[in-house]
Amino acid sequence: MTVIxxxxxxxxxxxxxxxxxxxxxxxxxxxxxxxxxxxxxxxxRWSDHHFSFTWRDDLQSLHLSSAFDMxxxxxxxxxxxxxxLMFINARLWIGHxxxxxxxxxxxxxxxxxxxxxxxxxxxxxxxxxxxxxxCEHYYPAFQFVLWGGKTAQEAVAAAILxxxxxx
Length: 167
Hints:
The chain is α+β, with helices and mostly antiparallel strands.
């Protein structure tokens, strides 16, 4: 008697395919630059947010980044923004803001690992919502420092002002 061993593999959807589905459901403009890259624009309260999602098969991870449409110029502004980054990043549980030294761009970044590319629609939706919420929430703080001349402490206090109760 011969026993034939058949291996059953189930094809999992690419994590960016899942993300693309979430993006389409929200009616957001996007471009699939390649099988491993998706670029997305979302209108926010303060500005349009542009997100780039990149899948790294070798790391089994999905990286997202969103650059703000503002540049840090001058030594004084650099010190002020660096201080603000410290205050904001200490409050974030997931993701972080960076300052690209080459051109002074402020960027939100986060990466998630998906072993065997096993991701779900809800994970993609959470990842996108997390990034959008962080960018929306802290965008004004960066404006307060860069254009309003506020200190990092003043900017964070103004940006994270949360209303209590109902009017």
